[in-house]
Amino acid sequence: MIRISLVMLLSVLLVACKQQAELNNTLSVSSPVNALRPVVIYKTKGDYYYNVPITLSDDKQMIVSFPAPTDVKAGDVYLLPTKLAKGYLLDNRGIGINSVFTKYTYKEYSALTALLSLGELKQSIVDYEPIAELWISSSPSSISVDEINSLINSKSLSKRFKRLK
Prior knowledge:
Largest sheet: 5 strands, antiparallel
Distance between the termini: 60 Å
Mean pLDDT: 81
Number of domains: 2
Shape: globular
Number of helices: 4
Helix content: 25-40%
Number of strands: 11
């Protein structure tokens, strides 16, 4: 009985590991945008492409979310946004309506050996209103960068995305 249970447990674990490996392969930067989370497209008022974003509360007084230095890089690749047509960016890090950008580049931030204090992070904010436009997928689905660019170029983002700002 114990032998059968052990075999069943190992079988379940092998299937789960294989499914997780397959899922990880579908989330690569070069594949269509991840369907498991909303797709976020945005445009900034300034050039913050290399700056690390953090998230503030609605009243912009408190930091509610920020990455660890290890969160801004996957292997040797920085999790920079994907450049799209007409200055739009595809979020790869966690941009939202209350996102702001720090003075730290992804390279500088990933090299930190310890978390910054909330005070240091707040002092590093370079713009409290950096988002000019923010669009989120109205229903999470797989969409390629080429498809997004086509929607941008034809001024049809509203067909697949909801404008939040």
